[in-house]
Backbone:
């Protein structure tokens, strides 16, 4: 595998062992700047371990991980502000309003109060949360979809080079999840951000990603698929690839579709 200056993420022959067990074995892939890439796999496929190495939370046992020209584990502090994560649960602070939750990352980066309030309002508007009443609401007053939109606004407010979505839609009902996926994909593309989506749901991957990497344990690439806008608009193509992906994951297509709902 040859990496280029356009690659914001590089994994080369990466292993991660816990004792004698491999969670990741000889994993290699790159992510280009401006791409949306899905790491898709069943529970236990190693996709979260791969994400944690990209985040710099843990080092690889062997191999090389590079994020934005840095070693994410060794240079963890240098990646602050360049990388942001939205998790499966929204992780909003219950004592802070939606606006103040979004402003938190900006506060940590030392942005002044007036500017961080303005930027927090702008990012909440970008994820379709507007109106003074909504900005003042606390997490327990927000719907599940609005909480996750607030979490995404908080991640994007620091203007990261790279956005990581860790099962960010899996706790939402199907209709809310689909609407949020559409809005986030449109926003990420409009802003030319790079995004890595971790998911076990085929719908998430095909509706959002420019490229889908199907991982099977211990985190090897079993299927590598490029997705265009024309592909996403073609129901027959989606049906064929859903079946192919399900087979690569070791699932039956009907079971995987049901899990995605």
Residues:
């Amino acid at each position: 595998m040859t990496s280029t200056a356009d690659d914001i993420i590089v994994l080369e022959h990466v292993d991660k062992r816990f004792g004698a067990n491999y969670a990741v074995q000889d994993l290699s892939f790159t992510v280009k700047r401006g791409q949306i890439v899905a790491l898709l796999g069943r529970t236990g496929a190693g996709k979260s371990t791969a994400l944690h190495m990209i985040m710099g939370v843990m080092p690889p046992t062997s191999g090389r991980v590079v994020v934005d020209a840095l070693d994410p584990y060794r240079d963890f502090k240098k990646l602050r502000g360049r990388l942001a994560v939205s998790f499966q649960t929204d992780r909003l602070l219950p004592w802070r309003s939606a606006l103040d939750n979004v402003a938190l990352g900006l506060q940590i980066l030392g942005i002044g109060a007036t500017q961080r309030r303005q930027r927090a309002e702008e990012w909440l508007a970008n994820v379709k949360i507007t109106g003074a009443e909504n900005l003042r609401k606390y997490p327990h007053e927000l719907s599940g979809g609005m909480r996750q939109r607030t979490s995404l606004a908080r991640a994007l407010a620091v203007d990261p080079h790279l956005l990581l979505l860790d099962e960010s839609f899996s706790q939402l009902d199907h209709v809310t999840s689909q609407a949020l996926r559409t809005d986030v994909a449109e926003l990420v593309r409009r802003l030319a951000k790079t995004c890595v989506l971790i998911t076990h749901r085929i719908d998430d991957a095909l509706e959002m990603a420019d490229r889908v990497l199907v991982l099977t344990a211990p985190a090897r690439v079993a299927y590598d698929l490029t997705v265009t806008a024309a592909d996403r608009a073609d129901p027959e193509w989606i049906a064929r690839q859903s079946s192919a992906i399900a087979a690569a994951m070791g699932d039956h297509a009907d079971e995987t579709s049901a899990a995605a709902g």
Observations:
- The chain has a mean pLDDT of 90.
